[in-house]
Backbone:
């Protein structure tokens, strides 16, 4: 919805609410004023009728008081009858009646009233009312038993010098009261009726309602007898009801009830309400028309601003366009601020383009480096495979060394046993030199075999030395590759260092074995020479046998040492085999990690490629803006 329509609708709504509230307040004030006027009119008219009724009835009471006073001054039966028969009382009352305290017999002024023979006036309500009052009073309305007409009676005391002798009274027809009340029609808006405090209707325009409860007039609703207007519904009509008391009527609490048709009374307010509604509608329509023309004229610069923005939008990102700034109103301020926004946007787009170019270059470099890293990881995987193969071969060689060392140990043990036998033979008898010489020949052969075995051990030691050198070289290469791998190769560098340390210890042990074997070979050569000399001189001296015994002891000791060396070589080879297995497992783990690193490197390469593509798209979008 356009702004002009929104402004017009909002203004129309505000105007409608405002005028409606003003009209509502005005109508309510008028209704209140009319209500007060009606109350004042009812009070004035009702009070006037009430005073008229009060004066008329009070006149009747004063007449009865005068008659009572005349009887009291000159009491006699004849005087009482004469006063009751007076023309004045006959004219003012429908019937004058009475009864004496002595016998209750009726007193009357007309032959038309013929009470029953057993009539006793002393038990009648009117007699008790007159007897209880020192002045003339009115009785409650009652229905005439003969005519059915509603009557009231003014009663007074019959006395002689103040002593009660009886009561007399006069019946009053209420036609005069009804005529007075019926004059109140309130301009055709309602009617009035007379009722007692007990709620019984005394006089109503509809004579059939006389003597009935006034609640029948209002669908059974019993209203409080209040002079304020009360709203009540009856027979589908909204009524205004008020009750005006007859305050100056002696001894009686009577009210004039006023019933008004609210629609008739408030007709002027209803007419004014409709006029207000029509006036409000016409005012809103006229205001909408004027406001629409005014808003159209005021928002004309905004339409120009919209057209300029549309031109910029159709200009495919041309930020060099400027909106026209005309005048000093809010729309001109908006155009100026928008032009400033375009200037700021131009600078921002330029900075974003430069940043995008730098990002593209950095991303390309990163992608290249990631590609190189992936290649290096592949090379590392190949070298790890070679290292694993070498470690497997090394483990196999270590097992061979252990087996050869075990064989050498067994041979040394056998030589030791043979040497022990030779020592035993030399010890038993120096006389058996010939046999000893023969045994020396056998021993010479054994020594030759020992020499041969010693040379074999030297070969084995050379192989172990070669393996240790190769292990040291592989460990050095592994440390170099671990240093190249950086943080991910730190664990592998530790393992390579341990391998290099083990290879170093193996070289040292091998060197010691070589020295021992050299000593053994030297001893063997010496033994061969000594054995030859012993064979030559065995027959000459027994002392030579002792020397041979000593030589055999030294050979035995050397064999012990050779046996120990062989056991050490076997243990070292076993340890080397275990270490080689550990290195092999570590190499496998390193290879798995390297494979994962290679996968991450490939993923990084793909991400860098995607980033390069996104940066290219961003450059393409930014190139649409012309700055």
Residues:
């Amino acid at each position: 919805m356009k702004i002009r329509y929104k402004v017009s609708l909002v203004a129309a709504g505000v105007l409608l609410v405002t005028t409606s509230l003003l009209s509502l307040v005005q109508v309510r004030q008028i209704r209140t004023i009319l209500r007060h006027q009606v109350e004042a009119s009812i009070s004035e008219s009702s009070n006037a009728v009430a005073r008229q009724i009060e004066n008329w009835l009070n006149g009747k009471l004063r007449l009865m008081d005068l008659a009572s006073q005349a009887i009291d001054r000159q009491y006699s039966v004849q005087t009482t009858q004469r006063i009751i028969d007076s023309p004045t009382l006959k004219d003012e009352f429908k019937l004058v009646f009475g009864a004496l305290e002595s016998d209750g017999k009726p007193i009357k002024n007309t032959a038309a009233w013929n009470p029953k023979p057993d009539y006793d006036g002393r038990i009648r309500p009117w007699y008790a009312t007159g007897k209880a009052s020192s002045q003339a009073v009115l009785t409650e309305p009652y229905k005439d038993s003969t005519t059915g007409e509603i009557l009231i009676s003014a009663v007074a005391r019959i006395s002689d010098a103040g002593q009660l002798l009886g009561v007399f009274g006069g019946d009053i027809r209420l036609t005069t009261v009804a005529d007075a009340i019926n004059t109140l029609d309130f301009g055709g808006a309602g009617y009035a009726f007379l009722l007692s405090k007990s709620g019984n209707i005394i006089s109503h325009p509809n004579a059939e309602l006389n003597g009935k409860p006034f609640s029948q007039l209002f669908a059974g609703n019993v209203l409080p007898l209040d002079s304020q207007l009360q709203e009540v519904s009856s027979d589908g009509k909204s009524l205004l009801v008020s009750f005006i008391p007859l305050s100056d009527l002696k001894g009686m609490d009577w009210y004039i009830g006023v019933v008004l048709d609210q629609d008739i009374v408030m007709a002027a307010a209803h007419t004014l309400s409709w006029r207000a509604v029509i006036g409000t509608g016409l005012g809103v329509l006229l205001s909408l028309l004027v406001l629409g023309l005014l808003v159209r004229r005021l928002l004309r610069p905004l339409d120009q601003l919209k057209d300029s923005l549309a031109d910029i939008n159709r200009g495919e990102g041309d930020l060099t366009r400027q909106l026209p700034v005309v005048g000093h109103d809010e729309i001109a301020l908006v155009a100026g601020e928008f032009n400033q926004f375009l200037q700021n946007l131009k600078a921002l787009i330029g900075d974003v383009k430069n940043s995008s170019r730098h990002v593209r270059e950095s991303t390309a470099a990163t992608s290249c480096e990631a590609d190189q890293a992936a290649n290096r990881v592949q090379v590392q995987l190949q070298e790890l495979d070679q290292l694993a193969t070498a470690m497997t071969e090394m483990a196999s060689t270590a097992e061979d060394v252990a087996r050869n060392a075990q064989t050498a140990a067994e041979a040394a043990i056998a030589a030791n046993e043979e040497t022990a036998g030779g020592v035993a033979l030399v010890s038993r008898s120096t006389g058996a030199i010939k046999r000893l010489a023969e045994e020396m020949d056998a021993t010479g052969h054994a020594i030759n075999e020992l020499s041969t075995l010693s040379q074999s051990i030297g070969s084995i030691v050379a192989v172990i030395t070669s393996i240790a050198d190769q292990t040291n070289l592989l460990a050095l290469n592994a440390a170099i590759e671990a240093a190249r791998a950086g943080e991910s190769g730190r664990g592998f560098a530790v393992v390579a260092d341990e391998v290099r340390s083990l290879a170093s210890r193996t070289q040292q042990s091998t060197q010691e074995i070589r020295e021992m074997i050299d000593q053994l070979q030297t001893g063997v050569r010496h033994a061969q020479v000594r054995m030859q000399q012993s064979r030559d001189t065995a027959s000459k001296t027994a002392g030579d046998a002792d020397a041979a015994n000593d030589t055999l002891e030294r050979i035995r000791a050397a064999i012990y040492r050779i046996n120990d060396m062989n056991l050490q070589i076997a243990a070292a080879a076993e340890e080397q085999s275990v270490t080689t297995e550990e290195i092999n497992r570590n190499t496998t783990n390193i290879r798995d990690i390297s494979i994962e690193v290679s996968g991450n490197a490939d993923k990084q390469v793909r991400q860098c490629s995607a980033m390069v593509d996104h940066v290219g798209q961003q450059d393409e979008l930014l190139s649409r803006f012309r700055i």
Observations:
- The chain has twelve helices and eleven strands.
